[in-house]
Write a structure and sequence with these properties.
By secondary structure, this protein is of the alpha/beta class. The protein is 29% helix and 27% strand. It is globular and about 50 Å long.
Length: 309
């Protein structure tokens, strides 16, 4: 199923090529039936400043060590489908109001063509608002979250990744990026799904996961160290980023950084030179030719199988 979703996304990517690329570059086209890999890439300098003035020639893409030919490049911000997850477990009671206001400020930065859903989780997972661009509806859903219960972090992320598959582009002329932004203050204590289940689903998706871990007063607690590992790894593997603010007052600034990063990404596409259809994991590395710049994207993808369409 994941393979079929990925191929559909690649077909949509191919369909935008003629419109998105200048006439001089329109010879770079995707051929039907070729497995095309799409990447959303963030570039930072040594001071962690976002770099937005690069061109296709500034990038190199490697798959399992083999240099790949970039067939598609865009620095234009494409629409996004975003799942915003808010931890409303009992431990969040004193901080939930501040978290709500920060989350509202975040959704207010979404553009009219973007869509978002609001996922509230404690010991259960509730989709407070399905995907919409209606900011009033999103704000109402955020304010409806109430604190109580334990933490089903894994379950919430897994459901959101599944739900994002439904938020496809509305037309063949549109590419819609996907992201999960999750706020939590502790380890998973009530999911029936393991971290490995969620990580596998994340690696099979086309979704970048951005995580925010609110540190407890006891930073050395074993429970939070486990949560920190989970949040860091999910972000790392999918090309997102993890934040761990020490104070709830920093949360609005973190959400602002995430919104700015999502608005500053490059989209690259390439047709893999690997002809095998074995479903194996393929490692991706994106390099920037300019000095002192680093690119961040997903760590890889699962190749097609002989049963893929």
């Amino acid at each position: 199923m994941a393979g079929r979703i990925r191929i559909l996304a690649y077909i949509l990517l191919a369909a935008t090529l003629t419109a998105a690329v200048p006439a001089a570059q329109r010879g770079q086209t995707f051929r039907t039936g070729i497995d095309v890999v799409s990447l959303n890439v963030t570039v930072l300098d040594a001071a962690n400043r976002l770099i937005r003035d690069l061109d296709q020639a500034d990038f190199e893409v490697f798959e399992d060590g083999a240099n790949q030919e970039i067939s598609f490049f865009s620095k234009t911000q494409s629409p996004i489908a975003l799942a915003l997850l808010i931890d409303s477990s009992a431990s969040m009671e004193d901080r939930l109001g501040t978290a709500q206001e920060a989350a509202i400020g975040f959704v207010q930065r979404l553009r009219p063509e973007d869509v978002a859903e609001i996922v509230d989780f404690d010991s259960r997972v509730e989709i407070r608002q399905t995907f919409t661009s209606d900011q009033a509806a999103l704000e109402k859903a955020i304010r409806a979250t109430t604190a109580g219960g334990s933490t089903a972090l894994h379950h919430a992320i897994y459901i959101s990744l599944k739900d994002l598959k439904k938020a496809r582009a509305s037309s063949p002329d549109e590419i819609r990026r996907q992201a999960v932004v999750v706020l939590s203050d502790g380890e998973d204590t009530s999911s029936i799904l393991s971290y490995e289940d969620v990580l596998d689903q994340a690696k099979r998706s086309e979704t970048a996961i951005y995580t925010i871990g609110l540190r407890p007063k006891d930073n050395g607690s074993r429970g939070f160290k486990e949560a920190e590992f989970v949040l860091k790894q999910l972000a790392y593997e999918t090309g997102g980023r993890a934040w761990f603010p020490d104070n709830i007052s920093q949360l609005a600034g973190v959400y602002e950084q995430i919104a700015t990063e999502l608005a500053s990404q490059y989209t690259l596409g390439y047709a893999s030179k690997n002809p095998r259809r074995d479903g194996a994991w393929r490692r991706i590395v994106v390099r920037v030719k300019r000095e002192n710049l680093a690119a961040r994207t997903k760590q890889g993808y699962y190749g097609p199988t002989s049963t893929s369409p």
